[in-house]
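Exercise: predict the structure of this protein bound to iron/sulfur cluster.
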Amino acid sequence: MIHSGHPVSPHGPNAETPRKAPTPVQDLAAAIRKDLARLRERGPVIGCFPLYPPEELLHSLGLAPLVLWGLSPLVSGYAEADRHLQAFTCSVGRRLVQFVLSEGRDLLSGLLFYNACDTLRNLPEILDQGLSGRGGKLPRFRLHLPLGSGGPAHHGGYLKQEILRLCGELSDAFARPFDQEKFDLSTDLYARARDLGRELEQEAAAGRMGFAEFCETLSRAVFLAVEGRILFFEETLARVSGRQKRTGPRVMISGILPPPPAACRAMDAAGLVPASNDIAVFHRSYASTPAVRGDLAGYYLEFYSNHEPCPTLLPTADRRVERLLDRARAAGVQGLIFCGEKFCEYEYFEWPHLERRAREEGFSTLFLEFSAEGDETTGAATTRVQAFAELLESGG
Ligand code: SF4
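Solution:
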């Protein structure tokens, strides 16, 4: 937790922390870089994008998956990214390129990616190009997800072949044979981490964690190995579970990324209770784990076919809006706050339909937009959050 601007170490109270930090942002960046150094000690780090790579497979092979999302604490400018990307690229793409070109050669042993949106489609080649002048390209591993809406009966065979091919390529490249028993143990660890993510969400829904604290905790966990993530979540749960419940207008917050910290704090200050979230890097990532064991390809067929709906997983998109509204009803929320990622056409195409359906169901809605400039653009959002909270308090 970095509630007061000083990060609590996910490695326990006695872990080394910087004695003096010029700013909270630099403090956080230094702490995350230590997390990344520890991650590297576990095995070759594989930078993954977009959000739902086969982490369990990498982990079982003794590799250290790092999902290249939520990189804002590590990126303070876009000079490298802007040499390769258009200015109208989302912050996720710009930060990813900036980070990999600046730090990728030192940290990463490879890149793993699957097909999602147009922004990400050519990033592997762009990264190749950028890295070729900085010590050389990184080995690349590609998973092609079928995007048709025919379901497992239609594309299941193809997807299973893709998983087995990827497994073979990773095994050969790193000389680490696949072991089904190790894979099952890895899936158990990821299932545990996802369970704990949902428990933290429940603590936030009960008002025992503010939204800023919740986002800080979940965002920091991205940089930890799954074993460290489990410990960090367990310690956080132990710390917050005795707190008083807090009441206030209940909201669901949606978006690809959490809002910038200043906007999260504005939601807490306005008295809003984050009763549920539909943030891609949070709930959509920890919503569930397949029960399949003993079958690598079957596990990932289930993983991608029945994943929590996300516009970046096109086959799941048809069931997304109604699923989100069901969850909002179950959590007893009054309002839905959508945090738009500027230039993300996937979420923006969906929002008008989602907003109309949410209002038909009696939810109030608020649309906020955030960009690569992050905290610098949250002033207007703060005012709108305060007004929205007043509206909900008055029963509007
Ligand atoms: S935020 Fe949207 S446009 Fe950007 S990488 Fe994610 S899905 Fe693609």
